[in-house]
Every structure is written in C-alpha cells, then in structure tokens.
Input
Amino acid sequence: MEIIAGYMMVRKPFYNFMSSYRTNTEFVLEPVDSIYYQGFQRMEWYDVDTYFLEKRLPEKFMAKYEEIIKSEYFNLFVDLARTEEDVFLFMNLDEEIPVKNEVIVLSSPTLNAIYSGVFVSEDLVEWLGYDIWTLGGWSLIRHAIFENRQLCLLENNPVNEFGLFDTSESMAQFVQEYNALGSSDKVDPLIDGMPVEAIRVGRLTIQS
Output
C-alpha cells in the first residue's frame, strides 16, 4: 500500500490548454522534444468547475465538490478528492469528461499531512515522477520548461517521458537554476521564503 494525499481530475496532455491573454485564445501546451507535461497542473477539475460556475452541477454533488475545493483556503490550490468513489462520481458527469480527463494521485509530506493521508494499492497506481510545486498551486516545471521554454534547465535537470523528474533529489539543483533565471526575468521569480516542494504524481491504472 502507498500513502497519498488524495485524487485529482486533470486534463489529458492533448486536451491541456493554456490561454493567451493578448490574443484571447487557447492552445494546447506544446511538448518539448515530443515529451508532454503530465504533472499536476493540467486544468485540474476544469470541466467540473464549468458545471459549477454555470450552475449546472446537480445539487447532490454540490457538498462533495465544495469539500474538494476547500484546500484553496490553505492557499495550496491543489484540490483533492479523498476517495476513488468521489473522483469517479465527477468523472462520470457526462460522456465527454472521461475522454478529455484522467485521474491522478498526489503525494508529498505537506499534502499528506494536511489531508491526513489515505492508502491506495500499489497495483492501482502508475507513478509518473515528481513535479515541483510552490504556493498558489503552480508547477515550476510547467512554468519554466513547458510554458517559457527555458530548455537550458534540461541540461542538468533532464525530465522523463512524462515531463517530470524521476527522483525528488532533482529539486534542489532545479530550483537553484530556476532562481537564476528569475533574476534575469526569464521566469516568474520566487518570493523569498516561498515554500517549494517535490510532489509525487501517479496515474490510476483504472480510470472508471
């Protein structure tokens, strides 16, 4: 058994869009050397949130969804369902959601402590690697490498086939080089004292 913080619905790589505020358009987050980013920051809960904001979410689901998004009050912005049953409840809202989305699990010392940790069977998770999280719920890997195309970071910090790091030990070197780029305004700089943590990301092997 593995300890995880919880479950998250995210867009699959081909449906993971980012917005351009200048042109008011959306486009797929492009791969780097045919590698797509498959961390936690992938339009998480986007389709459910659309139901919620448009007041189309069935009343019986409201309390459960409000429970999922409560982590925003911790300024984590990593919203997790506590059980497989809860996340698949939303995955089955309509026929299109499971086509565009998948269920991942997250694990880190901070998240596991806040969510008290839940157990998941090892054979139900395909571990993809480690993402680098910071306050506000954004991924430094996504921001620096996949959005801002600072590919110089890959020289000393290669990502795996899922666009993540294979071990949490890669974080220190990556953050040091990230901060250097931040000083040159090539990426958004980190505020002094801002928490940064490696989050282990896995994909459920059963998606329904």
Observations:
- The two ends are 20 Å apart (CA to CA).
- DSSP finds seven helices and nine strands in the chain.
- Helices lie at 46-53, 59-68, 84-91, 97-100, 109-114, 140-147, 171-183.
